[in-house]
Design a protein that fits this description.
Layout (H helix, E strand, L loop, with lengths): L1 H42 L3 H6 L8 H4 L10 H19 L3 H22 L8 H18 L2 H14 L16 H17 L12
Helix pairs in contact: 1-4, 4-6, 5-6, 5-8, 6-7, 6-8
């Protein structure tokens, strides 16, 4: 029996290792693209931000929903988003490409629509994606009733929970709390949609 269990775990470990490699490749490539765009934007004196940043409540601004997370105000802005984007995105990717793309898409859409509806001024930055992926990791364990995912959520909250202050309008006037709020809502919706149809009860050991 021990041999059978061991052989059964090998493909699972290989699958996790494959997803880990894929996650590093995808997140690394995405962040590299952000840096390329930031260099181009700097050389163009911010022209990309003026053209493709999200303009709230304008017809053209609806198209900006698809571009504004790819641009940043400056290099420091991009650097502040890069590490959490890689960490949270990688952890979500470990659950599979479909889960990652769903969480990313709904975070992107939620962030963009919220900024378009109630934002103020031209908005750029991937922080809405960061908040969406983070909120997905925080709540999915409760929807899935998975102790392992809940434990990960607790660890992430202890390490990064302070960023949730960015959801509050009065914390910092120079950040888009609307993008943070919409992204976080998108992450929660993704976790809800991706929950198993028949969730087993949480059992102790």
């Amino acid at each position: 029996m021990a041999g059978a269990n061991g052989s059964g775990r090998l493909p699972e470990r290989q699958a996790v290792a494959s997803r880990a490699r894929g996650g590093l490749l995808v997140l690394g490539g995405f962040v590299a693209l952000l840096f390329v765009l930031e260099v181009a934007n700097s050389l163009m004196l911010g022209a990309l931000n003026r053209t493709f940043g999200l303009r709230p409540r304008s017809a053209d601004g609806l198209l900006d929903i698809f571009t504004f997370p790819l641009l940043h105000a400056n290099l420091n802005h991009l650097l502040s988003n890069s590490l959490p984007l890689i960490i949270f995105g990688f952890l979500v990717f470990l659950s599979g490409l479909r889960v990652f793309l769903t969480a990313l898409a709904l975070s992107w859409l939620g962030s963009g629509l919220t900024v378009w509806l109630i934002g103020d001024g031209v908005t750029v930055g991937a922080s809405g994606l960061v908040f969406g992926l983070f909120s997905f990791l925080l709540v999915r364990g409760f929807f899935n009733r998975s102790w392992r995912q809940i434990l990960l959520a607790v660890v992430l909250f202890l390490g990064y929970g302070s960023i949730l202050l960015g959801l509050l309008p009065f914390v910092a006037g120079y950040v888009s709390w609307q993008a943070h709020l919409g992204g976080a809502a998108g992450g929660v919706v993704a976790a809800l949609l991706l929950r198993p149809r028949h969730v087993p009860a949480i059992r102790g050991s």
